[in-house]
TrEMBL record, chain A:
The lineage of its organism: Bacteria, Bacillati, Actinomycetota, Actinomycetes, Micrococcales. Transmembrane segments: none annotated. Its EC number is 2.8.1.7. It comes from the Bacteria. This is Cysteine desulfurase. It comes from Isoptericola luteus. It catalyses: (sulfur carrier)-H + L-cysteine = (sulfur carrier)-SH + L-alanine.
Amino acid sequence: MTTTGTARPAGTPAALSATELAAVRADFPLLGRTVRGGRDLVYLDSAATSQKPNVVLEAEVEFYEQRNAAVHRGAHQLAEEATEAFEQARAAVAAFVGADPGEIVWTSGATAAINLVAYSLANATAGRGGAAAERFRLAPGDEIVVTEAEHHANLVPWQELCARTGAVLRWFGVDDEGRIDLSDLGSVITARTRVVAFGHVSNVTGAIAPVAEIVAAARQVGALTVLDACQSVPHLPVDLHATGVDFAAFSAHKMVGPTGVGALYGRRELLEAMPPVTTGGSMVEVVTMEATTYAPPPQRFEAGTQMVAQAVGMGVAAQWLEELGMDAVAAHEQHLATELVRISEIPGVRIVGPADAHDRIAVVSFVVDGVHAHDVGQVLDDRGIAVRVGHHCAQPLHRRFGVAATARASASVYTTTEEIAAFREALAGVRAFFGVD
Amino acid sequence: MYQQVILDHAKRPHGQGLVDVAAGHLGGESHQVNPTCGDEITLRVDVDGDTVAGVSWEGQGCSISQASASVMTELVAGRPLAEVARLDAAFHDLMGSRGKGLEDEAALDDLGDASAFTGVSQYPARIKCALLGWAALKDSLARSGALG
C-alpha cells in the first residue's frame, strides 16, 4: 500500500503545530471551497460526516484505474491485485483499531454492522448455526441493555431483536450532563442480561462512555458487549482488544474515508460461531440444491460483490490517521473541545452535554433560548458555518432533556481554533437577529 | 429569507390555542410532524357550509413553521373552500419556485403575507417547515368531511 506521507517524526509534541495543521488542511480539497455567496466554509459537521483527504480520493481512483476486478475469485493478475488491495485495506483498518484482520467484517457502515450482529442473534435464536450458535440464542425474559444516549442505529436494531425473540430491552439513563448514569449498574446488568450495546462516544453530547466499567459488568454476567465506535475511532486512539468488547461498529465516512463502507469488529471465536445474515455468493463453501455450508469469517458475513474501492479508501484513511498519530489528533481535538464549550459563556446558549472539555470530544450540542435550532443553523449557514440541526438520530436523548431539537457543532482533525472562534462570534449574534433577549 | 413579516409572525403567532368547533359546523383535526427536526403542529379547522370559519392550532417549531402556520391562519379564515384550495396550490407552487416567486402576479398578491416566504423556497431543507401548517390544514379539511 502506498504511504500517505503524513508520518510525524518521533519526539514530536502531542498537539499539531500550526504548520502541521495547515498541511493537513491543504490535503482536503473541499475545505478550500466557498459557500453562500463567496464565504469561506467553516465546516463544523464532521460528526455527521467528515471531509476526505486527497490520498483517500486518489486511492479510489487508482483502484478503478489500475486494479479493478472481482476479489476472491478469478485467477488473473487483476483479480490477484484487487484481492491484495482489498485484504491489505482490511489489515490496515484492523491495525488502526487494535484488531486482527480476520476480526474485521466489511459492511456498508456502522448501521449495517450493528444490524448484522442483531440479525445473527435472531437467526441463532431461530435455530440457525447449529450447536456452535446455541450460545447466541435468546429466550423470553432475557434482557438486552442499551443506554438512553444511543444513536437510533444502536437502539432500533435491539428493539427489533427483542420483538422477534421475546427478550426485554432495558437501558441506562443519563445524568444532567448527558453522561451514562451507572448508579444502578447492578440492577440494570443482571444475570438475565445477554447483550449490552452502547456508544463509545455520544454523537450528541460528545461524552466518552465508561467503557471499562460497563464491559466488566457485562463480562461478569456473561453478556455480549457491542460498542458503537463511530464517534471514537476518528477522534481517539482506540484499541479494541484492550477494551475487551465483543463487537464494535464504525463507519469509514466519519473517519476521513469514503461513504458506503464500514466495519464490524467481532472477536474471532464469536464470529466463527455466528450464523450468517445476508446469504448468497462469495460467503459459501459447498452449495447443493438441498443445503449450503458457509465460509469461515469474515467472508461468511460478506455476501455478494463487496464495495472494494471504498474498502481500499477506508484502509488508506485509517493509515492516514495512523501516520498522523491518533495521540496528536486527540490532543488537537481536545484543544478544540475546550474552545467549543466556551459557547456556554454566550448569554442564552445552553450546552446539552458536559459543560467542560473533560472526558469528551469536540462534539457540542446546544440550544439557544428562544430560538429554534433550525433558525440557529440557518443564521450560521448564512455566515458559511455548517452545523447540524435536529435530533441527530437520538430522539430519546433529546426527550430526556426536554428539547425537540438541538444545534450541534462538531470538529475533526482539520478544524482550526479560528474556525471555532468564528462560530462563537456568529452564534453570539443569533438572539439579537431574532429579537430575543 | 427572514423577512420582517416572518419574524413578526414567529414572535406573535396568530391562531395559537385550539378552539372548539362551533355548534352545527363541521370540524376536522390533524397532527403533522416534521421528523427531520421534530417540528409539530396540531391544527383544527371549523367549517361552516362551504366556508372555512376558522383555523386554530398548537405546536412548536422553528420560526418558519410557526410564522407560516400563523400567516396561513389569517389568510384562510372566512374564505370559501374552493378559494382555500387555490391558495394552497399557489403556496405549494411558490415553495417549488426555487426563490423565483410566481409568474402569476395575481396569485402572488392573493397569498398576501404568505408571499414573504418566497425566500424560503431557495432552501430545500426549510420548505417542509413552511408547508407543515398547510399540510395540517389540508388533512384536517379532508377529515372534516366538508370536502364531500
